[in-house]
Design goal:
This is Hsp20/alpha crystallin family protein. Keywords: Stress response. The protein contains 1 helix and 7 strands; from the N terminus they run αβββββββ. By secondary structure, it is of the alpha+beta class. It has a domain of 98 residues: Immunoglobulin-like. A hairpin with a 2-residue loop joins strand 3 and strand 4. The protein is flat. The protein starts with 5 loop residues before the first helix and ends in a 13-residue tail after the last strand.
Length: 146
């Protein structure tokens, strides 16, 4: 009669755990998927030119009344919260479904961002924030070495 080694059962256990992790990874994804409703941070694009910074934020399903944009110190904050209630009456029962979604994002603005000159527009679920740039307080000068 062959005796089983405890290592044989451990190998089987490790194989089973590996399969479970693979299944979980398939379900959860890699973590690199684009933002979708239910995630707590929207994806953003930040572009710049000589006069301004432009931040474009995808916020599908949110209206402009659901979103707050504010600046504190040199940090731009975007916060949104949405509650939808849908009541449908069918036959002799009432069905009620609720969704709640909230998100926030903080962006540290560059040193030349004019935090007093920021505008925001919302169009088709895309928030566009424009931050003007200021001229540096001192353009600098050469220092002679004595």
């Amino acid at each position: 009669m062959d005796r089983q080694s405890p290592l044989d059962s451990m190998e089987s256990w490790f194989e089973q755990m590996s399969k479970q992790f693979e299944t979980a990874a398939d379900r959860w994804g890699t973590g690199l998927e684009p933002w979708s409703q239910g995630m707590d941070q929207p994806r953003i694009d930040v572009a710049e030119d000589d006069d301004q910074y432009v931040i474009v934020v995808d916020m599908p399903g949110f209206g402009k009344d659901d979103i707050e944009v504010y600046v504190t110190d040199n940090t731009l904050a975007i916060e949104a919260e949405q509650r939808d209630e849908l009541t449908t009456e069918e036959a002799t029962y009432i069905q009620q479904e609720r969704t709640h979604q909230s998100l926030s994002r903080r962006i540290t603005l560059p040193g030349d961002a004019d935090t007093e000159d920021i505008t925001a527009t919302m169009d088709d679920g895309v928030l566009r924030i424009t931050v003007a740039r200021v001229e540096p307080l001192d353009s600098g000068h050469q220092i002679d070495i004595e």
